[in-house]
Amino acid sequence: MKGRDRGVANYDWVSKFPAATVRHLHCHSSDHRPISLVFNPNNESQRWFRKPFCFEEIWLSDNGCSDMVNCIKSISVSIRASEDLLIWPQTPDGSYTVRSAYRMLAMASHNAQLGTSNLNTSKKLWSGIWKLQVPSKVRHFMWRASGEALPTRSNLRYRHVLVDGTCNLCEDHPEDAMHCLWMYDYVKCIWLSDPTFNFPRAKCFNNFCDLVLFVLSEATSSTAALFAMVAWCIWVRPNKLREGQQVWDVSDTIQRAWDL
Ligand SMILES: [Zn+2]
User: Residue 10 Cα, ligand 1 centroid: separation in angstroms?
Assistant: First the structure.
């Protein structure tokens, strides 16, 4: 299904443009349908006026509303007269932080990809990656790699940017995070050059997320941090090369990760 953009408006805005509506336009070459904001669809802007929500007393005696009324009555209210407060549920002290909002959104998109049954896996992964003693750009990279959110060929194909998601170096495998960062022959040589990373080699992993979870649970925190740094170096090296920047020799990748 094509991605549908949506419009969001607050009550003040809606009361100024009561008949405004959002229409989805057709398009063929993007995975998004553009939206068009129509202020006055049938010249009927004054025909109705949306009332802000308020609770009507009559609902208390209406049987159809009994569930909702009982639910509201069950909320215990403080006996002291105090102002209502806005509470942000994503932090222990209820105050909003950008970091907690970022975390909430990142978790939501990750869970959408993994499916809700894997919520615990996702939480474990998030807290493990967040604890890594590495620069935050590397943590973000690890999070995106684990959720198959890197611009690999496989992912670009999934998003209809490319027709073919096969790795164009070996022309043999789909180029997903697992292939780019762990399985591809030349990448494998990098990992094998340091015996520290022999321990996950005996195991088979379905995807990069499983590999990261394994490393987070089995390795010491310094090995896990080095793992993340090496993966990051493997990921950025080809991009740096493409941009004509100076890069380290492939065989020095692990040393490079140590140095960073
Ligand atoms: Zn390949």
Answer: 49
Where are the chain's structural domains? 1-77, 98-259
Distance of CA 107 to the CA centre of its chain: 5
Quick: pLDDT tens for 187-228: 999 999 999 999 898 888 989 999 999 999 999 999 999 999
Residue 237, phi then psi, degrees to nearest 5 = -55, -50
Residue with tokens 């999934």: 158
Supply the ipTM of this predicted assembly: 0.92
Going from the Cα of 176 to the center of ligand 1, the distance in angstroms, rounded, reads 9
Centre of ligand 1 from the C-alpha of residue 156, in Å = 15
Residues contacting 173, CB < 8 A, separation 6+: 166, 167, 179, 183, 184
Q: Which of 200, 258, 192, 257 is nearest to 230 (CA)?
A: 257
Residue 207 CA, ligand 1 centroid: distance in Å: 15
The conformation of residue 29, written as its DSSP 8-state character, comes to S
Ligand 1 centroid – CA 186 distance (Å): 9
CA of 170 to the centre of ligand 1 (A): 4
pLDDT tens sequence across 56-70: 777 777 777 777 778
